[in-house]
Amino acid sequence: MTAQVDYLVLFFTTTSGASGDLLGSDEKEIVQLVWQLVDLKNQKLGKLNEVFINPELSERTAESEPADEASLACPSATNLDNALRQFHLRLTNEVNSSGTGTSLCLCTDGPLPIRQVIHPEAAGKNLVLPECFFSFFDLRKEFRKHFPSSDGKGLDVQLMADSLGVSVEPDVDSNAMPAQQVHSMALPAQQVHSMALPAQQVHSMAMVVLALLSEPLCHKFCNPERVNDKFETGTCSKMERVCDNTVIRARGLPWQSSDQDIARFFRGLNMARGGAALCLNAQGRRNGEALVRFVSEEHRDLALQRHKHHMGNRYIEVYKATGEDFLKIAGGTSNEAAVFLSREAQVIIRMRGLPFSASHEQVLAFFSQGGGPGEGEGPGEGEGPGEGEGPGEACEVSGGREGILFVRFPDGRPTGDAFVLFSCEEHAQRALRKHKDILGKRYIELFKSTAAEVQQVLNRYSSAPLIPVAPAPLVSMLPAVSLLPPPGGMRDCVRLRGLPYTASIEDILTFLGEFTQDIRPQGVHMVLNQQGRPSGDCFIQMASAERAFCASQRLHKQVMCGPAGRGGASSRYVEVFSCSAEEMGLVLMGGSLSHTHTHTRSRTGTGLSPPPCKSRRLSPPTYGFTPAPPILSAEASALYPPIGQMLLGPRPLPPGHAYYPASAQLYMNYTAYYPSPPGSPTTLGFFPPQLSSPGALVRMPSLAYSSGVKDLISAVQGYQSLVECVPLRGGGVLAQSGSGDTLLPPLVKPAGRVPSRL
């Protein structure tokens, strides 16, 4: 509208709550409408009109309840729907009676009466507003066209009148409420005065308008502001620039809400095209948040005033957001999605739970026939689709095959999701009635969707993984050292897997039967978990590889009875494999073996995996491991001092106490040194150097009086005493009776926990 209108309707409204710059921010209802017609051509004022509104009247009328004292005190009060009808009827009659023109437009003191009061309440009560409420002039903006230096936020009618040199004294006798009506309302004088303020406000606005129309300003009222009556869907590219001052984040939305519901919540404010983006969680479901983009910063600021306003029974939190946040959710790069979303005035339905073999024809038949397209494929084999409920209402998919978009992984595999277009809201509602109908042998979930959700789902499945990959650790940048044992070793050990958790060494020997005589001395090694409990695995060192192979062939998947000696809950079949001593050592040091037979693996697939901490563990000094080469050179260790101090090369291993006979390569029971701390050295040959001085006694104060030798040995299990001080004085403990102190021989703490014999 570029030409000046014929009439200007000065409009003002009050609510039962806040006023001024906070009008409409508290979600209170309208209680009064005041307006006055201005003939712009003749510069004449019309009659001052006002209508009182009782918000409770509509509910009481519907329930046929008696009126209360408030309605009796104000007999002219009506509900909002009737008030809007009276406004439109009176305004039309007055314009027709003037006969100087037909075009009119509202004019308000700021955008709040229209954008924050009339439109939100009408949307909440499902009222249809007259056409004149979708365009208006902001008197403050019209004033700043001639006085640009004026502050927009602090500007009001009184300041505008003072700047124009206009007197705004109200003519109470002609423009205020009739005296008969005031007396009939029987209201206190203070309340009557407050009801007269809107009339005074409209009269002041009329004086300012007449001053703008007169010389020397001769203002022209053209190009009014528009209020969008419909939300426009659309796409957004990741390359598009979005201003940070136009985006908000809404939190607490119902999970079934759509972009139209969000536009309804922000009714009166102009959202950008495709400016509602519902957020999804890691599982692809809505998380109750949305990012909303508005056309300007002014509309964004008005949206922030709706913080904790209600959508149904839920209050919605509104916060500031950035343009980058919006592009992460709504931005897309898929050409297929851009073509799919390029159709205007379409309603999008999301299908979830589709069979991976679903085709376009099956989806079209699902919506056209009201159920699964296959004959007899649904439950009952003869009841037809929808579990015998009969076919639902048919609804045509817009564009046929072109109106269906399947979501796929980057390799082309279907995800079970699809988006379908419908031409109107009526067809979409019919489609939603097929929620959980059967397609093939699966029930299909249907949800109303948005263009931003289409982009977001496609971005998730086609580009970034749902679970982000953690950055590579610093150790991965160091020279690679293989922690797996070399292939081709002698397979003279047997691995038992799937043992009952109550199985003991005696039960294992009974299970082996005749092969018990082929076990090396102390060659049974139970594998325990991190809690020190049996893990169901056991390694046994056999006399030869031939006997180990025979045992694995004969005992594989044989049943082991529990401690009671009979079948029952503790009886299980046991898997038996032959393995090498190196593979056994890897598992005992914290690694793992594959579930498949390791003797069928090659070098590239040995079935082994290194220990979780990617470093070998300490072992008793009599283990016959060959020293590993240093992982870091001197130059590399200087670049990473903390890691270099921990990953030094091996030191010579001094002779220690023999735990087992040195003639055979035996393994200690796993319970003695599991688990080891993650800071252990990475070479098995590491051992602290011999101390030059004998050291001193270690004092342990504040011990419990009930502590015994066993508790003290458990406390120092991860420490290693010097060879000269192995015998403890006085039976191992020097104790002071009743003092709670204990003296122990000197201990040395290596970087890892090592079993020691005190």
Question: Could you characterize the architecture of this molecule?
Answer:
The chain has about 750 residues and is α+β, with helices and mostly antiparallel strands. Helices cover about 25% and strands about 20% of the residues. The protein has 22 helices and 31 strands. The strands form nine sheets. A six-stranded mixed sheet has the order 3-2-1-4-5-6, sandwiched between helices. A five-stranded antiparallel sheet has the order 9-10-8-12-11, sandwiched between helices. Helix 6 (about 155-165) crosses helix 9 (about 190-215). The longest helix is centred in the N-terminal third of the chain and has 25 residues, at about 190-215. The chain is elongated. The N and C termini lie far apart (about 100 Å).
In short, what is this structure?
With 758 residues, the chain is α+β, with helices and mostly antiparallel strands. The protein contains 22 helices and 31 strands.
Briefly note the structural class of the backbone.
Answer: alpha+beta
- Net shape: elongated
Mean pLDDT equals 74
List how many beta strands DSSP finds. 31
How are the SSEs ordered, and which strands pair?
Layout: E1 7-15, E2 30-39, E3 44-52, H1 57-63, H2 69-73, H3 80-98, E4 104-108, H4 112-124, E5 135-138, H5 139-144, H6 157-164, H7 172-175, H8 179-185, H9 189-213, E6 225-226, E7 236-237, E8 247-251, H10 259-265, E9 271-280, E10 286-294, H11 297-304, E11 309-311, E12 314-320, H12 323-330, E13 331-332, H13 335-340, E14 347-352, H14 360-369, E15 404-408, E16 414-422, H15 425-432, E17 438-439, E18 442-443, E19 445-448, H16 451-462, E20 493-497, H17 505-512, E21 519-528, E22 534-542, H18 545-555, E23 558-560, E24 572-579, H19 581-588, E25 592-593, E26 608-609, H20 634-639, H21 641-646, E27 698-700, H22 709-715, E28 720-721, E29 734-735, E30 742-744, E31 747-748
Parallel strand pairs: 1-4, 4-5, 7-13
Antiparallel strand pairs: 1-2, 2-3, 5-6, 8-10, 8-12, 9-10, 11-12, 14-16, 14-19, 15-16, 17-18, 20-22, 20-24, 21-22, 23-24, 25-26, 27-30, 28-31, 29-30
Helix pairs in contact: 6-9
